[in-house]
Amino acid sequence: MPHPLRTRRPSRHALLPLAWLACLACQANAQDKPTNAAATLREVVVSGSRSEQLGDELPVSLDVVNQQEAEFSQMQDIRDAVRDLPNLSVPRGPSRFAITGPARSTGRDGNAGFQIRGLGGNRVLMLVDGVRVPHSYIFGSNAFGRDYLSMDLLKRLEVLRGPSSALYGSDGLAGLVNLITHEPADFLHSSTGEATSLGGRISTAWSGDDRGRGLSATVAGRASDSVQWLLTASGHRAHGLQTRGDIDTPDTRRTTANPQHDRDTALLGKLVFQPDGWQKHVFTLEQVDKESSVNLLSSRAPLPLGGTPAQQAAAVMDERAESTSTRQRLTWDARYQINTALANEVRTVLGVQRASARQLGTSDLYRNPDRVRDVFYEETTWQAGIQASQSTSLDNGWARKLTYGLDYQSADLSNLYTGVNPLPPEVFPLKRFPDTRESGSALYAQSEWMNERWSIVPGVRLDWFAVDVRTQEGFYPPAKRPARSLSGSAVSPKLGVMYQVRPGWSLFGNYAGGFRAPSAYQVNGYYENLAEHVVIAPNPNLRPEKSRNLELGLRTRLNRLQADVAVFSGRFSQLIQEQRFISGAGTLADPKVFQTVNIDQARIHGFEVKGHYDWGLWAGGRWGTPFSYGQARGKNTLTGTPLSSVEPAKLSLGLDYQTATWSTRLVVRHHAAKRAQDIDSSETVKAPKVQITVPAATTLDWFAQWRLRKDVRLNVGIVNLTNRKYWMWSDVRGLESSSTVADAYTQPGRSAQLSLVVDF
């Protein structure tokens, strides 16, 4: 049965945003002129072409969230950063996991990572300054997410929708998120724009939804004409994210948040050396540390104990968990202006990154022996690349820019599973997969042909990848057979075209391919539990996932209206489904066998609308409306069943008012319902259970900024102003409709946010 909270179907209104945009376009076209590039600050991005370029000139769907918007809208983490971007989300379940037991990892991975147009996890490539963010790792009751990040270090966030493998290789199956950190030059100027030798920023923030508080400080300096430096340090403390649940009992009936204490610290150091106008070297050191401790009251058995004597003996009396994660990065990024026959510019990148995570859990049982689970996961990555570009002016008003290069990366992955009182036949310590080296090398090339109206961008990349087992120690035995290595290759093409119909109006289209190589734990992951008669078997014959995406769009840049409309259709093959049931009756003699396999083929299609309309001056200030709407549908083309991972439609509509000294914004967000016909329950819960659905919801947020001085800003906000009770689909996937604790998965109610920023 579906969840009892229901709303009417919103799909009949799906075309309203397009109709509204058409009216704005007609009004703007009748009285407006194309944007004056000299008078309007346009966003420069690096993700669309691997070099700095105006985002408006790229034939792709690209979103940018800059530091000014993040500050004004009180964005505390990556989940906040994408809340107004269409067909984009960051799953985050409540901390209601269990120390032992299969598929009980809810909330362990925090902000799990980005989901773009219905696909997420390791199918979205995440970069920090071009260096890959560690993969997520989920096995049984353990889940390590990808939130090794701090918003305090970021200058902007770039999102490239659709396959990005033609430029960046594996993992760019669904899209790319590139997080760009600050540079010294961002702070070495006064409020009037004059160059300074010392500058920086101090900010403090408080959020009511998790009772969080943070402090960040940045200082940058100009040591000489050729040397600049920057140092940023930040700290953040918070508790569990609140819910709209009202059952506060210390047992499995609980729907309020479990007691939780989070502590995050981050450090960024940069040194920029530019000895002359022909070369620039950037050395970066980054470290992000996160700690969390949770008192899992929601795991405790209700008192008095019921059930059979065996069930009473295994009842949980107390359960607690601690987790830590660390990411350390050191990179050298150099650019040379050489002006030879082969290239005008050469860029070299060399980086090393170490990420480690630990999850420690203790479980106090009524009569059975207590359990302790101590799990480690670590990635050490080396990344190197050389890229050349050559710009040439041709006849008849055409110009060409050729970009080509070589990439190499190598990641050593390891895990360790230990503790007290393992389930037979396991003996601690052990490894769920063997120590493995994932490596890849690639050649890529992209050519941009441009004239006054046309931009044509073909590209191709050839990747070689390998998953090499380094040692069997700790894995075989106890695994039944040795782990095996795997290797392969992939070709990723792309073609983008943009045509300027008239000044301020452009049509664009692109076709792109993507792929994702199997990971170490998908190839060789092994688990055996005699008590539950379950075996998870490795699969060394996995093949890469592949995607092909076609997108068509319209882009307008007028003085009043700036908008993008895109329709897309993506086809995905050889999708990897983890822990699919293969055989077995679930007995000691014939256990149930699960295995990760290539099985799914899928199609995801939809459209997106986003932009801003300037209403002009009225009542002493300027009025404007930022807007976005995204809708997607997905289907497993082999079975005809819906693709449950696709998010429901989302509308964001704002009203801005700006003066010289203060600004304010009201934001209405509408989340469409996720209905039973849009869900394949067999994909999310075990039969005969049925996946819960979520009703539609409309929320209202308010933000304001007071510029007390040119260099002092006070930001305030009230989130969920109407105190609406609602759910996010990505947070409840895997929750049965019969659950009595659905309120534990609700979003926070009304809460305030406050920050103070001082530049110097």
Keywords:
8 helices, disordered N terminus, single chain, 6% helix, 760 residues, Maltoporin, Chain A, five-stranded mixed beta sheet, globular, 22-stranded antiparallel beta barrel, mainly beta
Structure, briefly:
By secondary structure, the chain is mainly β. The N and C termini lie far apart (about 60 Å).
Detailed description of the structure:
With 760 residues, the protein is mainly beta. It has a single domain, classed as Beta Barrel (Maltoporin, Chain A). 6% of the residues lie in helices and 52% in strands. The chain has eight helices and 36 strands. The chain has a 22-stranded antiparallel β-barrel. A five-stranded mixed sheet has the order 3-11-12-7-8. A hairpin with an 8-residue loop joins strand 29 (561-583) and strand 30 (592-618). Mean pLDDT is 91; it is low at 1-14 and 36-40. Its main location: membrane. It is a multi-pass membrane protein. Keywords: Cell outer membrane, Membrane, Receptor, Signal, TonB box, Transmembrane, Transmembrane beta strand, Transport. This is Hemoglobin/transferrin/lactoferrin receptor protein. Belongs to the TonB-dependent receptor family.
